[in-house]
TrEMBL record:
Source species of the chain: Paramuricea clavata
Protein name from the UniProt record: Uncharacterized protein
Domain of life: Eukaryota
Length: 220
């Protein structure tokens, strides 16, 4: 009876140790928290089983009035208890590390968002500055056109230079808008396409007016 109980206890210990190794390997491999938690749950059940089998073995010794070394048997379960406590500490340390990583990630995400918001604000302000410059150039060019439109010999060179400068300013608007859009999410970025399109339309209209005026220049 006692011999059979000892074999059962030995078998329970073997299964327990095998699962200890699996759990420790998972922790060292940094497997998912869900997998490690699942393996620890299984190990806890096996540890409970080892304790039951040990108590069953001791009970069988006492029932059969077999003489046994109490300290030796207590030492056996104490060693098993140390194994369980050690792997429990490893598991807890792993989850503390996971929580630390989550905390650091949340902190980094907040910093990135804050920096991202600042970058978006700066890019938006830069775009506003270039748009103001573009619209001011358009206004100046409209005034110049109004002054030249009825002249038989309009200042073609001046108008062409002004158109070139306006084109350059339009390209600058395109550049800063591109930098701004890259900082936005896909949905918001799509809404910003119309901003540059409206400036392109303004440029096309005034460029055509300039072309029409220049073509009227009388060649002596």
């Amino acid at each position: 009876m006692a011999h059979e109980a000892k074999l059962v206890r030995t078998s329970a210990k073997r299964v327990f140790n095998r699962n200890v190794k699996k759990l420790v390997d998972s922790i060292n491999s940094k497997d998912t928290a869900a997998l490690i938690e699942s393996r620890f749950k299984d190990l806890k059940q096996l540890w409970d089983d080892v304790q039951r089998k040990h108590e069953g073995y001791i009970e069988s010794l006492e029932n059969s009035k077999t003489t046994y070394d109490v300290e030796q048997e207590d030492g056996w379960i104490d060693e098993m208890d140390k194994v369980y406590d050690d792997v429990l500490r490893q598991k807890l340390a792993y989850f503390e590390t996971v929580e630390d990583r989550k905390f650091l990630k949340r902190k980094e995400d907040r910093i990135r968002k804050k920096e991202g918001d600042k970058a978006i604000f700066r890019a938006e302000q830069a775009r506003k500055v270039e748009e103001i410059a573009f619209r001011q150039d358009v206004e100046n060019l409209e005034e110049a056109l109004a002054a030249e439109i009825d002249k038989p010999n309009p200042a073609a060179s001046m108008l062409e230079t002004a158109r070139t400068e306006l084109k350059r300013q339009l390209e600058e608007c395109k550049r800063v808008n591109g930098e701004y859009v890259l900082l936005l999410d896909a949905e918001t970025a799509g809404d910003e396409i119309a901003w540059f399109t409206s400036l392109q339309k303004i440029y096309s209209q005034i460029s055509k007016k300039i072309g029409d005026v220049i073509q009227r220049k009388v060649i002596p």
